[in-house]
């Protein structure tokens, strides 16, 4: 190792200009060595970029790259091109000639630096170049804009040579104050990282030309009084101000910087884990030493002062590795140390298991070989890491566990560090929250979520051959398993699966999300007890690729500020099920699509719903059995209550009927979705076989009610709810029945009476003011006798309601009553409604006036008082014989004592409801109950 005498200047002892010159020369020697290493690493075609950058900022010549106009600032302080640079320029443009300036005038460009991995063990042939252009702080905005335009032109020229460059304009005065107009490197983030960025700059930057850093001339042990030291250097003219560039010192680093830098590296680690985890570990070391931190930049400067000039030892990545290694060994974290070494090895991208690509070993390879000898790795470990581009599922899953453990630990460490240091900045809290959600979306496990295992580990995980098997698991339940290679049935038990799931679609979704199966993968199928065919399997995989392409677009910070919502939904119906098999449907020949003709059978045996949400999480849910459609619809609609509307695709690959089944299910879903989009507090009614499913949206909460038969449905429709609640019907609900025809007529604020005549029977239906339904089946003689009792009752009810209103309100209190006759289907014409005029109420109507007053009694039993032609009949007098007494009275009033039905013509429920107003359907239900008791008494023999 080359060593030089240690230099230990002390401010109080005076400063020697020769010592300063020696120190500057040492840094320039190291700088020259790093620049040579950088040039050696990049391809020959790109080397002119690095060699000519100082000259291209020094001159503004029309025939040279980067020329924009004659007004662009040009001139690099303290720079004169050497013969080699001029020769390179003339190779680029033969007619170029350079005329040296006379005298030293102030120049607009103060310094040029190359920052980052160039010249280090981490540099690759395709590493990009981050160039800091430090300019005169007094440059006017117009000239700054022109300089920025020149940088863009140089970036385009470099790109034409295959070199990716980024230029950053640096105002030294603003930079010292921590002010900058843009991100300075691709490693920057939203939370300020001034000192950490400066630390990285001082230990990695390669000086290309112009003024040299003043920081070089201040000993590391004087960093705490950096400003005083610099004032003496400049005021005493030990160095001229026009020769040096001051970007500030590495004083006390605020705790918030560690949090900000850690958040950013965690974010980047989700896509490029090895590079970012290396830096994340360094941030952890720094934070753990805070506030007695000694950063690597100061270690680098101390080494130079001590005469340690060996480039390998001063390599920024090697120095960082040794610092982290010591920290992890002290903590006994052997697993994390192994991960650190893998991160460094993979970042260098020098496969030691293979011979050098050139005739001789590169300096990077030699350095890595020396370093890795201390790790005691065997050839197998080198081969495994060098084949990372070929890693498939097993290797990726194993590595993922280590990476996720490290990411999780780092997130918790940063959160605890923020609490311990009382870092309460709102921007930090926001960043921490966003990162937490990004980590949650990427690595958190939860029910139904398909796990992404490839966190930037392998570029291609697609397998050439796989075997998909349905079999019984250890518990005796059916499950699906995926195996490497193409296996025969008798070979399967000798291998362990890559993945096992209870259902098929979660397994296929896992393969799709992680790129394990692509269009070229051959999958051998052993369907077991399922109905899966190779054709259906191919269709399922194709449907996944077409509907939910991978990878999805990146998730923005704004999206992560909100809860995750579905963005794309794929529903796969009957995957691995044939609904026409005898064991699935007992009436195969009469089976119908759900909702078509008579819904005697349901061909939807299972639905697998794959949902990609706004956080790029892929969630799968499985619904099976007779309730599959209703359960899936409930789950889907419940996810839409916030108004989001994902892209929906429905697929079914059942032979012959698959397209029809999918179209029908998609029709149901879109109709229900549209129903809830039109109005709040809506309801949607679906029929599956003989059952009915009501989906009820109230206060942004979806409720699902199952009604087992038509009787249960009618009972529900007759419930009072005292407000208008839209009810939307599936378009094929109760095909051929008159109920959908009636419910479709729902209107607010009026009463609608429907009647259907079937021989000597008639069915009366009423939709009240809030569209609650009342039905009653009655003997039929003629329309007058059928409708008049109901008309009289509603007339009395209207009179009572008018009496409860003020006189001013009675003018608008009248409720319209509409009558319809339900006409039977005729030829091609289906059942239809014919509007009818209400029956006239004659004064000499032979019907008896029967008034009922219902009042609350003891033990929650109602007390009924009946008035027949003003004759009072009370339960207080007659007890349980009340209805028999009224029946005897009515029969006595009839000439021949006929026992035809009797009707309630007026009803008072005010005592039961206090100041509230009962809904019409409640009156009608009481009316039906009282009439049934009265007519039963009239038909009794003893009356």
UniProtKB/TrEMBL annotation:
Source organism of this protein record: Pseudomonas saudiphocaensis
GO biological process, one term: cAMP biosynthetic process
Domain Adenylate cyclase class-I N-terminal: 20-216
A Pfam match: Adenylate_cycl
InterPro entries listed in its UniProt record: Adenylate_cyclase_1, Adenylate_cyclase_1_N
UniProt name for this protein: Adenylate cyclase
An example Gene Ontology molecular-function term: adenylate cyclase activity
């Amino acid at each position: 190792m080359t060593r030089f005498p240690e230099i230990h200047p002390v401010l109080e002892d005076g400063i020697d200009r020769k010592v300063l010159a020696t120190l500057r020369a040492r840094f320039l020697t190291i700088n020259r060595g790093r620049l040579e290493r950088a040039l050696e690493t990049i391809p020959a075609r790109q080397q002119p970029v690095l060699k000519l950058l100082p000259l291209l900022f020094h001159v503004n010549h029309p025939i040279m790259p980067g020329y924009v106009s004659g007004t662009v600032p040009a001139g690099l302080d303290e720079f004169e091109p050497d013969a080699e640079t001029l020769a390179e320029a003339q190779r680029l443009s033969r007619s170029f000639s350079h005329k040296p300036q006379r005298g030293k005038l102030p120049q607009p460009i103060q310094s040029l630096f190359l920052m980052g991995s160039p010249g280090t063990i981490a540099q690759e042939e395709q590493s990009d170049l981050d160039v800091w252009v430090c300019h005169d702080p007094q440059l006017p905005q117009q000239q700054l804009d022109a300089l920025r335009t020149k940088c863009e032109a140089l970036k385009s020229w470099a790109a034409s040579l295959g070199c990716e460059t980024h230029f950053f304009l640096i105002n030294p005065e603003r930079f010292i104050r921590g002010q900058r107009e843009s991100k300075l490197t691709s490693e920057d983030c939203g939370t300020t990282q001034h000192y950490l960025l400066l630390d990285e700059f001082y230990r990695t930057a390669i000086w290309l030309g112009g003024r040299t850093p003043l920081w070089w001339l201040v000993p590391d042990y004087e960093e705490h009084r950096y400003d005083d030291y610099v004032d003496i250097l400049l005021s005493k003219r030990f160095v001229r101000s026009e020769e040096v560039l001051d970007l500030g010192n590495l004083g006390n680093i605020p705790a918030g910087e560690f949090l900000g830098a850690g958040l950013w590296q965690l974010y980047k680690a989700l896509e490029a884990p090895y590079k970012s985890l290396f830096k994340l570990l360094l941030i952890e070391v720094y934070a753990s030493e805070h506030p007695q931190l000694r950063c690597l930049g100061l270690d680098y400067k101390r080494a130079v002062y001590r005469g340690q000039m060996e480039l390998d030892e001063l390599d920024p990545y090697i120095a960082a590795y040794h610092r982290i290694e010591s920290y992890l060994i002290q903590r006994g974290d052997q697993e994390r140390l192994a991960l650190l070494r893998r991160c460094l090895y993979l970042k260098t991208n020098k496969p030691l298991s293979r011979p050098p690509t050139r005739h001789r070993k590169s300096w990077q390879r030699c350095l890595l070989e020396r370093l890795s000898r201390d790790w005691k790795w065997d050839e197998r470990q080198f081969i495994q890491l060098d084949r990372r581009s070929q890693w498939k599922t097993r290797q990726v899953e194993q590595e993922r566990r280590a990476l996720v453990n490290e990411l999780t630990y780092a997130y918790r460490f940063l959160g605890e560090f923020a609490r311990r240091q009382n870092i309460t900045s709102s921007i930090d809290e926001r960043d921490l929250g966003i990162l937490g959600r990004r980590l949650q979306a990427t690595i958190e496990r939860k029910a139904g979520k398909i796990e992404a295992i490839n966190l930037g580990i392998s570029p291609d995980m697609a397998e050439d051959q796989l075997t998909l098997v349905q079999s019984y698991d250890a518990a005796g339940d059916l499950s699906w398993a995926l195996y490497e290679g193409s296996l025969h049935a008798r070979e399967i038990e000798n291998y362990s699966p890559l993945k096992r799931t209870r259902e098929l679609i979660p397994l296929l979704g896992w393969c799709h999300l992680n790129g394990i199966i692509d269009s070229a993968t051959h999958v051998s199928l052993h369907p077991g007890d399922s109905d899966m065919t190779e054709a259906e399997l191919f269709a399922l995989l194709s449907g996944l690729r077409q509907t939910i392409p991978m990878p999805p677009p990146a998730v923005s910070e704004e999206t992560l500020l909100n809860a995750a919502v579905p963005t794309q939904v794929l529903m796969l119906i009957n995957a691995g099920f044939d609904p026409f098999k005898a064991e699935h449907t007992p009436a195969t020949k009469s089976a119908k699509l759900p909702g078509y003709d008579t819904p005697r059978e349901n061909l939807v045996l299972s639905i697998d719903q794959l949902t990609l949400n706004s956080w790029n999480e892929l969630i799968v849910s499985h619904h099976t059995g007779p309730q599959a459609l209703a359960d899936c619809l409930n789950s889907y609609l419940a996810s839409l209550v916030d108004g989001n509307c994902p892209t929906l695709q429905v697929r079914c690959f059942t032979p012959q009927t698959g397209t029809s089944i999918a179209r029908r299910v998609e029709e149901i879903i879109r109709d229900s979705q549209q129903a809830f989009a039109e109005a709040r507090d809506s309801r949607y009614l679906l029929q599956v076989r003989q059952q009915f499913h009501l989906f009820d949206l109230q206060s942004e909460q979806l409720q699902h009610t199952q009604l087992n038969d038509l009787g249960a449905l009618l009972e529900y429709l007759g419930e009072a709810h005292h407000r208008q609640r839209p009810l939307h019907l599936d378009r094929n609900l109760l095909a051929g029945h008159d109920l959908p025809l009636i419910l479709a007529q729902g209107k607010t604020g009026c009463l609608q009476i429907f009647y259907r005549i079937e021989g000597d029977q008639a069915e009366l239906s009423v939709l009240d003011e809030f569209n609650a339904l009342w039905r009653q089946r009655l003997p039929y003689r003629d329309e007058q006798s059928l409708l008049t009792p109901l008309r009289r009752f509603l007339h009395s009810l209207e009179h009572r309601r008018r009496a409860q209103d003020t006189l001013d309100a009675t003018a608008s209190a009248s409720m319209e009553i509409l009558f319809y006759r339900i006409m039977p289907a005729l030829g091609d014409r289906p059942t239809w409604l014919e509007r009818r005029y209400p029956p006239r109420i004659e004064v000499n109507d032979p019907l008896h006036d029967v008034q009922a007053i219902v009042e609350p009694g003891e033990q929650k039993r109602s007390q009924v008082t009946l008035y027949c032609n003003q004759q009072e009949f009370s339960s207080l007098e007659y007890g349980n014989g009340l209805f028999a007494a009224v029946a005897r009275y009515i029969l006595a009033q009839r000439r021949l004592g006929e026992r035809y039905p009797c009707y309630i013509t007026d009803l008072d429920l005010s005592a039961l409801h206090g100041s509230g107003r009962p809904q019409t359907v409640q009156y009608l239900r009481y009316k039906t109950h009282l009439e049934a008791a009265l007519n039963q008494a009239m038909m009794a023999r003893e009356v």
